[in-house]
């Protein structure tokens, strides 16, 4: 049986002595990424020198990037911010952390073509403003909207004294962290602190006379976005994090006034941490339960770069899941050719040897590859869906599919999956779960139990996000 770990409590203990919430969030993320393994911290003198050097590098990097790729002058942005009540803050990329909010804005714009919102381009400037916006909006569906990068040379120069104060304050915060901080991580955090300070100085001038009441963030919790949110909040702006994925605890914390999660179970975990002012989700009525078409779907997600299971055993956890499902299919008389396998989207980014190991296990099991032209929404059509712990669970439930979650690696105890009545860890539990979802007399009850435990939220809409603020 795989372990279920109280990761949140372990991280909370590791950052309990840190009293600056921004540094607490940053070092909590480091603790999670380092696998919770205890390590020896640097002594005070070495830590202080390392922080000063890291911040000096960060100050130089930020200045060079602004000179190279530019930003938006505060005078130019002032007119835009004075003409709209809502801004959206998104990284200049087409990824899972930008798509939900971007799609919501695209849909809103179709229904309200005369209304415009300002888009703040967040993240490290690695291309021009126009190029970053094109990466965020690859189909040019938001070309009518005003795009702003809240950085400019003047705001950077005004931020330098603030960054220097942050540098000295960081020495105390990092000294309180009783673990090793790699120098590369020190530079990364120092850079985010510096960019956040530049955001603050930019917003102070650009927002003069602004009519902004709400700021919707697609990603936050880092030192740069959190500082911008704090400055907005001082001016009475309600900041909202439209969370893009399953809440995994500390790495998903932030300082937004409101965090709107994909499910009620995610919001419950959010409320247990010292972060957001309010955690909620957009309620959704359960759909009609799908009846199934005789085929099964198998979705693996341990094999991706950010997953702890991949860092420790490569594709091993996914291979164990595939073997578990193959054995169950044999006992149920399910033909392997009628089972479709869909890997995590990062399958082509992982070590080629690990990718080959997983594909070899699929070939041995006899599963067919999910066709490129079969939409993801086809999840609702299968008689059985078995997935490793991932957002597939809530996506499937929204499609009327009582998905089974197969856990083949240690899992955090407070994740929504631990509440799922169709969570399985071994062959016996998988057989029982399959019996529930494949039996027409039991399938609806299995779905109802899963829906009540997870409480999937509705897909984000601009109207729904704004309405959730008052719930």
Structural description of this entry:
- This protein has 471 residues and is an alpha/beta fold.
- It folds into two domains: 1-283 and 458-471, no CATH class; 296-454, 3-Layer(aba) Sandwich (Rossmann fold), CATH 3.40.50.
- The chain is 47% helix and 11% strand.
- It contains 17 helices and 15 strands.
- The strands form three sheets. Strands 4-3-2-5-6-7-8 form a seven-stranded parallel β-sheet, sandwiched between helices.
- Helix 3 (44-69) packs antiparallel against helix 7 and helix 3 packs across helix 8 (183-206).
- The longest helix is centred in the N-terminal third of the chain and has 26 residues, at 44-69.
- It is globular.
- The protein starts with a strand and ends with a helix.
- The mean pLDDT is 94.
Give the tags.
471 residues; alpha/beta; transmembrane; membrane; 47% helix; 2 domains; Rossmann fold
Q: Rg, please?
A: 23 Å
Tally of separate helices: 17
Q: Could you tell me how far the N terminus lies from the C terminus, measured between alpha carbons in angstroms?
A: 41 Å
Strands side by side in the biggest sheet: 4-3-2-5-6-7-8
List how many beta strands DSSP finds. 15
Would you tell me the structural class of the helices and strands? Answer: alpha/beta
Count of structural domains? 2
- pLDDT under 50 segments (min length 5)? none
Mean pLDDT: 94
Task: Estimate what percentage of residues fall within beta strands.
Answer: 5-15%
Provide the helix percentage.
Answer: 40-55%
For the largest beta-sheet, the strand count, sense and barrel status come to: 7 strands, parallel
Structural shape: globular
